[in-house]
Amino acid sequence: MNVGVAHSEVNPNTRVMNSRGMWLTYALGVGMLHIVLLSIPFFSVPVAWTLTNVIHNLAMYVFLHAVKGTPFETPDQGKARLLTHWEQLDYGVQFTSSRKFFTISPIILYFLASFYTKYDPTHFILNTTSLLTVLIPKLPQLHGVRIFGINKY
Questions:
Q1: Up-side HSE of residue 80: CA atoms within 13 Å toward CB?
Q2: E strand map for the chain
Q3: Where exactly are the transmembrane stretches of this chain (predicted)?
Q4: Per DSSP, what are the bridge partners of residue 68?
Q5: How far is CA 83 from the centre of its chain?
Q6: In terms of pLDDT, which residue wins out, 148 or 63?
Q7: Containing H/E element for 59?
């Protein structure tokens, strides 16, 4: 039992992605981003798709792979303070449903962006680079690894 906290989780940050309606909210947020970008008059459809993909992947990288710690005070003796949100997700267990969802969603968005840009080389390179920046940190081999000491502390 955790005295002085309103929840029974050791780290509520680990369960937020499994909460009811989170995946639908996430998909609607990406859809709304795309609609807002499409409504800007001087953006063509390929530019809007590429921007949707790049903005989504940049936000996903920052929130899941760059920011460390939790917004909650946790009784875990500071262990979560050194982990990114992706490393905390489902207590570090690999290949759970939420991890699969957040791995597949940028891939689906990449396929959509590539299709609607008609595989234009410039857009294709931007979309591929953007995809790789969010897929590589999700690999199980990179769990807890800090390349060149970046984001070590």
A1: 20
A2: none
A3: 23-43, 101-119
A4: 84
A5: 15
A6: 63
A7: helix 45-60
Cα–Cα distance for residue pair 48/45, rounded to 1 Å: 5
As a whole number of angstroms, the distance between CA 135 and CA 19 comes to: 23
Task: Please check whether residue 109 is in contact with residue 53, taking contact to mean a CB–CB distance below 8 angstroms.
Answer: yes
DSSP 42: T
The answer to whether the CB of 58 falls within 8 A of the CB of 130 is yes
Q: What is the rounded distance in angstroms from the CA atom of residue 85 to the CA atom of residue 89? A: 6
Q: Which two tokens stand for residue 130?
A: 């953007």
Tell me which amino acid residue 69 is: G
Structure tokens at 102: 């957040």
91-128 per-residue burial string, b: 16 or more CB within 10 A, e: under 16? eeeeeeebbeebeebbeebbeebbebbeeeeebbebbe
Contact in structure between 83 and 70 (CB atoms under 8 Å): no
Structure token digits, residue 125: 């390179």
The residue assigned the tokens 């982990």 is: 83
Are 56 and 110 spatial neighbours (Cβ–Cβ below 8 Å)? no
Q: How far apart are CA 53 and CA 132, in angstroms?
A: 12
Q: Two tokens at 140? A: 């199980």
Name 84's bridge partners. 68
Q: What would the pLDDT profile of 26-68 be if each residue is shown by its tens digit?
A: 999 999 999 999 999 999 999 999 999 999 999 999 999 888 8
